[in-house]
Specification:
alpha/beta; transferase; Spore Coat Polysaccharide Biosynthesis Protein SpsA, Chain A; Nucleotide-diphossugar_trans; 2 domains; hexosyltransferase activity; Glyco_trans_2-like
C-alpha cells in the first residue's frame, strides 16, 4: 500500500512551554514524512510560548490561541480542527525522532485503527534515553478483539498515554471519541475507550517518541486532590458508560478493579489528600462495585487478585490503607492474602 498520500495531523497543546516548545516543534518540522499538518494550540500561556510558536511560519503549521481550558479541551479543539487521515498527539515538552511518523505509518495495511510505537523515557537536561515505557515484548501484536489489549495492560502493563499512537481519524469520528473535560488522568480513560472500541491495533518495536520525565511542572507528578478525583471520574465513567451498558464484557469489571489498584496504591504511598477527597473516594468505590465473571482469559490468581482489590475498595479509607499490599502479583504474601480472601468469602 502506498501510504505517502495520507495526511497526518499532529496536535500539540501548549501551556507555558517556552522552555521546551521550540525544540519540540523543530522535531516535528524535521520529520522524514512530510505530508503532515501541525495543529498548535496555545492554551492561555502566561509566558512567551505564543511568541515562540508564532515564529514557525511553515505552511503546514497552524497556530491557535485560547483562554486556558486544560489539556482535554485543548486536545478536543485540535481534533475539531484536524483534517488528517490520521491523528497523532504530541505534548509540548516531548521530542519526536526524525522517522517517527514514517515508521508508524509504514505499518498501516488499510485496516488498523491504532498503531502504537515504543516510547523512550527521555531526560531533557541530559539529552538521553534513560528507560522505556511498558510495551509488548513481541515485535508486533495484531488484535481483532477489543479486550485483548486491555487484558494485556492489566496483566503485563502497557503505557496508557495518548501520545505516540497513530489513530485512524475515521475510527475516532465514527466512535465519537473525545477526551473527558476538566479532569486529570484523562489519558487513562482515553486509553480504555479507544482500545475497547478498536478492532485492529498494532504495536511496533521502533522507538517513535521521546517522553520527557524530568519536567518538574508535569501535573501527573503532583499528588493532589485533583489527581485522585481525576481517577475517580475515570472509573465512574467506565462503570456508567461501559460496565452498565455491556454487562457481559467481563474485561470491564476487571479493568475497573485494575484502576482501583492504582488509586489505592497512590493513596498508600502519597496520603496527602484532603478528608473531602478521601470521602469522595470511599463513596465512589462503593458505588462502582462491578460483578466479576470467571469467563475471561486471565490466570486464576490474577482473577482472585482483582476480585480481592475490589473487595478491599469497599471498606473505609483507613482499612483500605491498612489492608492493601503493593507487591508483585506472584508474591507469596499476595497469594496468601488471596487464598485467605477466597476461603473467607466461601463461608
Amino acid at each position: 500500500m502506498n501510504n505517502s498520500n495520507f495526511l497526518v495531523s499532529i496536535i500539540v497543546p501548549c501551556y507555558n512551554a517556552s522552555y521546551y516548545v521550540k525544540e519540540v516543534l523543530n522535531s516535528i518540522r524535521n520529520q522524514t514524512y512530510s505530508n503532515i499538518e501541525c495543529i498548535i494550540i496555545n492554551d492561555g500561556s502566561t509566558d512567551n510560548t505564543l511568541d515562540i510558536i508564532n515564529k514557525f511560519t511553515d505552511l503546514r503549521f497552524h497556530v491557535y490561541s485560547q483562554e486556558n481550558k486544560g489539556l482535554s479541551d485543548t486536545r478536543n479543539f485540535g481534533l475539531e480542527k484536524a483534517a488528517g487521515d490520521f491523528i497523532f498527539f504530541c505534548d509540548s515538552d516531548d521530542i519526536l525522532p526524525p522517522k517517527a511518523i514514517e515508521s508508524l505509518l509504514s505499518k498501516y495495511t488499510g485496516k488498523e485503527d491504532i498503531i502504537v510505537g515504543k516510547t523512550a523515557n527521555y531526560s531533557w537536561e541530559e539529552k538521553k534515553t534513560i528507560s522505556y515505557l511498558p510495551h509488548p515484548k513481541e515485535p508486533q501484536i495484531l488484535t481483532n478483539n477489543n479486550s485483548e489489549v486491555l487484558l494485556k495492560n492489566i496483566s503485563e502493563g502497557l503505557s496508557p498515554i495518548a501520545q505516540n499512537k497513530l489513530y485512524n481519524a475515521k475510527f475516532l469520528k465514527e466512535n465519537y471519541l473525545k477526551f473527558l473535560s476538566g479532569i486529570y488522568h484523562e489519558d487513562e480513560l482515553w486509553f480504555f475507550e479507544t482500545m475497547f472500541k478498536a478492532k485492529n491495533v498494532i504495536f511496533t518495536p521502533e522507538i517513535s517518541y521521546h517522553y520527557t520525565v524530568d519536567n518538574a511542572q508535569s501535573i501527573t507528578k503532583k499528588n493532589s486532590d485533583k489527581n485522585l478525583l481525576g481517577y475517580l471520574s475515570v472509573i465512574k465513567t467506565i462503570y456508567d458508560n461501559y460496565y452498565l451498558k455491556y454487562p457481559n464484557q467481563s474485561i470491564i469489571a476487571y479493568y475497573i478493579s485494575y484502576l482501583k489498584k492504582i488509586i489505592i496504591g497512590n493513596y498508600k504511598h502519597h496520603s496527602n489528600y484532603s478528608n473531602e477527597a478521601l470521602q469522595q473516594m470511599e463513596e465512589t468505590f462503593k458505588e462502582v462495585n462491578p460483578k466479576f465473571s470467571d469467563q475471561i482469559e486471565l490466570k486464576n490468581i490474577e482473577k482472585k487478585y482483582f476480585q480481592y482489590i475490589n473487595a478491599v475498595s469497599l471498606k473505609d479509607v483507613d482499612s483500605i490503607k491498612k489492608e492493601y499490599f503493593n507487591n508483585p502479583v506472584n508474591s507469596l504474601r499476595k497469594q496468601y492474602k488471596i487464598l485467605f480472601f477466597s476461603i473467607f468469602n466461601s463461608k
